[in-house]
Amino acid sequence: MPARDRFVTSWHDVLVQKVPRPGRSALALLLVLVVGVSAGAAATAYQRPAESRAAVQGFLDQVSGAEAGVTHEENTLVDAAAAPSSATEPSDTAPGAAPSASRTAPERAARRAPEPSPVPDPGSGLLDDAEVPRKASGKLRTVPGRERAPGDGEVLRVRVAVERGLPVDQGIFADAVMATLNDPRGWSSVDGVTFARTDSDDYDFRVVLAGPTTTDELCHPLDTGGTLSCGVIGTAVLNFRRWVDGSDAWESDARYRQYLVNHEVGHVIGHPHDECAGKGKRATVMLQQTLSTQGCRPQPWPAPGKG
């Protein structure tokens, strides 16, 4: 039976006051005072301050992407929340003018200094110090990109989606999913299938990375409790909590993530749960290995002896 049939985003105002020019009477009086006082002197000076100018320039680029509900993500290629802004700051003072007392040059420099971009983990796509939000946006975004199936056999087309707002590099996440699925130790060796990636509406199933609340909604009526993942008809839902935290039953988070992909996709293409064959024995990929391995040794692959 073909595998696909088994899918379960000032101006400074300067007030210049002119000092009135002294009249002739005042000049005469001043001359008398200068002559009459031997040791005194008086002088008056005024200067017109230069007019202050400031330039305000810049523009803001915003690219908006369509949004979708949690149960149907759009084939959206641009995330508006991630669109870079090219706006420039207005000048605080005119050229050559002293900075105002309320904002010094170091303060302006610190304000304008760009913050460093988070660095994604090359294996998982997780950004530095990624935290798990209980509730994210509730909207899914299809990760752009297509990839041919690398092997022989029945081609299953996979669309990868990520809930908006999660601290993960979506492209790296999608690459990790496809590398796991097309590993020689994967389902191709068991079911004779090979996996192609698509960002179109023509797909066989989806792999979705979602926050705990959205995972619960996508997996319903299964009870994932904000903690577990699931494989349901047409969708493998990976709980972001598990992608970040891994499992206490595993020493390696990277290997656990491989298990998570293979296990949930296994459900989508028709594989039920397994039991542990005995204490100390190697677990099969369809054994539930998130909360416990039931005494078996954790193992992430459908065909661990291949490759």
From TrEMBL:
Origin: domain of life: Bacteria
Region (Disordered): 81-151
Organism of origin: Myceligenerans xiligouense
InterPro entries assigned: DUF3152, MetalloPept_cat_dom_sf
Name the UniProt record assigns to this protein: Uncharacterized protein DUF3152
Residue ranges of domain DUF3152 in the record: 129-294
SUPFAM superfamilies membership: Metalloproteases ('zincins'), catalytic domain
Basic and acidic residues biased stretches: 105-114
